[in-house]
Design brief:
alpha/beta; 6-stranded mixed β-sheet
């Protein structure tokens, strides 16, 4: 089975996810980036996908850099490089017989370029739907786990319970 690598166009996703776009419009772009990375890290832990998030330098000028945050690779492109061009070359580089690259972006031109390189693409909104689905699964799993410990294990079978009820009724 192929390993799946999800490459996320960071600012494109922020612009497409309503709760993150709202933060961006309130001039809280740093908070929107952190929230995106937090949600993707939770998603990564549950799905066990490798995730690379790419931000371009148009909002945060400076040197290109790579870092690890919450077991994900976060890449900042150089000043003269767009996230789109970086993602396209990264997808071509990483796509192989052993790795299936999936790119999350709503940029149609980028989607077609990614597709022609053999990678798959999903829109930012499709990623949001999947992230929300995973959040629900996590909540369901943790609730069931917590409730499992709260239920009383009955040591008696149905026949024994019936006999005990009969004894109780005879005492009254």
């Amino acid at each position: 089975m192929k390993k799946e690598l999800l490459i996320v166009d960071g600012y494109n996703v922020i612009g497409q996810w309503p709760h993150l776009n709202e933060l961006k419009l309130e001039n809280k772009l740093g908070q929107a980036r952190d929230e995106l990375l937090r949600e993707l890290s939770e998603y990564r832990k549950f799905t066990n996908k490798e995730i690379i998030v790419v931000f371009d330098a148009m909002y945060v000028p400076g040197l290109a850099k790579k870092s690890k945050k919450w077991n994900m690779e976060v890449i900042w492109t150089s000043k003269d490089e767009t996230a789109d061009s970086y993602i396209e070359s990264l997808a071509k580089l990483k796509q192989s017989l052993l790795v299936q690259v999936v790119v999350a972006t709503s940029d149609e031109a980028e989607q077609w370029t990614i597709f022609s390189a053999g990678a798959l693409r999903i829109s930012s909104r499709e990623l949001l739907v999947d992230v929300n689905r995973v959040k629900k699964e996590i909540k369901y799993t943790t609730t069931n786990y917590n409730n499992k410990n709260k239920t009383r294990n009955n040591p008696f079978n149905e026949k024994q319970i019936s006999e005990l009820e009969k004894l109780r009724d005879d005492l009254l």
